[in-house]
Amino acid sequence: MNNDNIITLDHGGGGQASRELVELLLKHVPGQGGQCLQDAAVLAAPGPGQRLVFSTDSYIVDPIFFPGGDIGALAAHGTINDLAMRGARPIALSLAMILEEGLPLADLERIAKSIGEASARAAVPIVTGDTKVAPRGKVDKIFINTAGIGLIDASVDIGADKAQAGDVVLISGTIGDHGVTIMGGRAGIALRGDLRSDTTALHYFVARLIAAFPGAIHTLRDPTRGGVATALHELAEASDLAIEVEEESLPIRPSVRSACALLGLDPLWLANEGKCLIICQSDKAAAILTEMRLMPEGRDAALIGRAKPYQSSRVTLRTLLGGGRILSPLRGQPLPRIC
Amino acid sequence: MNNDNIITLDHGGGGQASRELVELLLKHVPGQGGQCLQDAAVLAAPGPGQRLVFSTDSYIVDPIFFPGGDIGALAAHGTINDLAMRGARPIALSLAMILEEGLPLADLERIAKSIGEASARAAVPIVTGDTKVAPRGKVDKIFINTAGIGLIDASVDIGADKAQAGDVVLISGTIGDHGVTIMGGRAGIALRGDLRSDTTALHYFVARLIAAFPGAIHTLRDPTRGGVATALHELAEASDLAIEVEEESLPIRPSVRSACALLGLDPLWLANEGKCLIICQSDKAAAILTEMRLMPEGRDAALIGRAKPYQSSRVTLRTLLGGGRILSPLRGQPLPRIC
Q1: Least confident of B8-17, B240-249, B298-307
Q2: N or C: which end of chain B has fewer CB within 10 A?
Q3: What one-character-per-residue DSSP string does B215-266 give?
Q4: In chain A, positions 196-255, which contact chain B (CB-CB < 8 Å)?
């Protein structure tokens, strides 16, 4: 392969080649209002009463391209969603990439295009960035970090510790799609054609629900690494509650179910990248579910459980056979590089 | 080595081991006012008229420990300095680490301690974080990303494009220290004992100068990757000026000079991690220099050049022999993993 078509160490030196690399990226990630990516970007100040939210995530998913998305879209959506889960409106993202010497420029361009499109679709600009190059074999292809800033309106009070006994637990759609797609792709198993990552940005979806049902939504969480079981565990602990989940209510695609059976995985512990758990007032749950199902992100929304006072176990699953099974957080089953 | 003492893939799974890892980190990086690291942190809103600044950088320096610092201190200082160079007061950092399976926990703790101490010394809290684990051989030991948020007062107007013909160029201290320390360490050359990285946070230093000389400082820049020559090139271009540097005025430690001769490096293109270039009104330069030299960060400050109208070359060096030499930005001399 010609050196003109791959990342070289020169691209990481901070000189001329680094500038050319940034110019290539800027074709696809145009930044805020044509303002180019800079060492530090200046943003408009928030309005009175608004609070700032700040979040960061690194993405090391393997493979970097997968059905339904790629590491670029994932990096944009993931941090947008972390902000949205605090009830915030995301206003800016940073983008830092660590590239392996030898990475085809075509792959980098494809990823940059995907990030740029995700940012444009979400209307959350990428305002500042950084690129580094590591020698061959010192990083695997490309790792991406995004950090994000969001604003929370004064009236919004959503948090992991705000769930109450009597609340119900909703999920915005099917579970396990992202995790099983990545694991299946990596295992080289020919999976059914409709298996694909659910990676998407949820901030519009969440903002509409918060606006339509003021005060009714107590807790939001995107069940990424560790899946629904681990996320519910953390929420139950943060609010000092127990959560009971109805197995038969869990929305799971048949293709995910069969791929999980094949791979020996349980969808409850698999990463999702475009779903959210909502813990809300029970008397508003039906109306919230109806509203969720009106939006594409919530088409398969379901009520999956209830919050109760804590007694002896945090999260239990009522199985189809009527029995109860304790759901522990993910433990000793590492699914490396799922996001 | 026992598995209890190293990073394992379990630490990256998002489950119980991930929580234990976060708890270990929180011993050293306590976060804002005891608030623990969360997926997204809520910050107080800025005051009226203030603007937000947002910056990000990844750190992949090799070796991860070096005379004068380590990758942790570098990651805290580097992003603080990117904010400070916009005239901002840094208010929060994020911390995202990508760890290699097998990294000794003792190394991770040492780095976390260093970050925590740098953050505490600088009074810039780390408010949100993320950890990922990549399998052995897929990342080299540890890569760190920090992003940062700062506030700029309404009265401050500092930028790469604000330099004017007639301004002078100051540097806060000796050049090349960080770059030659890293390159020398990597080459395994026994360097003289006083060679050490200059990594430090510059926000107090810069804030004091801005407050003492309102409006006189037009441009600030930390000459990291690519060194002083590349930084001056970028500033000259952004302000559409030419910059003439006096070779004899450049503060360079004798030990850096001799190590550079040995390694075939030029300090003008070497990374600095605790220095800043200041382009300011010429009639205030003497007073600013005096003020700089009162602070430890500016003990070796010097006036090194002047900004002129652009004619044919951006940056020239007036040599000791009286000749002129064009300084290009770093080109084709990659110094990989210098920061």
Answers
A1: B8-17
A2: N
A3: TTEEEEE---TTHHHHHHHHHHHHTTEEEEEEGGG----HHHHHHHHHHT--
A4: 224-227, 230
CA distance A94 to A151: 16
- pTM score > 0.80 for this model? yes
Q: What is the pLDDT of residues B168-196, one digit of tens each?
A: 999 999 999 999 999 888 877 666 667 99
Give the pLDDT score at B333: 59
Q: Do residue B335 and residue A13 have CB atoms under 8 angstroms apart?
A: yes
Identify the residue among B39, B156, B338 best suited for mutation to test binding to A, counting A beta carbons within 10 A and taking the highest: B39
Residue A321 Cα, gap to closest chain B Cα (Å):
27
Compute the distance between CA of residue A89 and CA of residue A87 in angstroms, rounded to an integer.
Answer: 7
Torsion of CA B74, B14, A277, A148, to 10 degrees: 10
Average pLDDT of the residues in A278-303: 98
Give the start-to-end residue ranges of the domains of chain B: 31-153, 168-326
Helices B254-263 and B177-187 pack at an angle, to 10 degrees, of: 50
**Closest Cα to residue B304, out of B231, B255, B205?**
B231
Which CATH number does the domain A168-326 belong to among 2.60.40.1570, 1.10.405.10, 3.40.50.720, 3.90.650.10?
3.90.650.10
Average pLDDT over residues B322-328: 89
Q: Look up the CATH architecture of domain A31-153.
A: 2-Layer Sandwich (3.30)
pLDDT class of A334 with cuts at 50, 70, 90: low
Is B326 in CB contact (< 8 Å) with chain A?
no
Mean pLDDT on B43-62: 87
Fold agreement between B31-153 and B168-326:
no
Question: Do residues A295 and A207 lie in contact, with contact meaning Cβ atoms separated by under 8 Å?
Answer: no
Residue A279: which pLDDT band, with cuts at 50, 70 and 90? very high
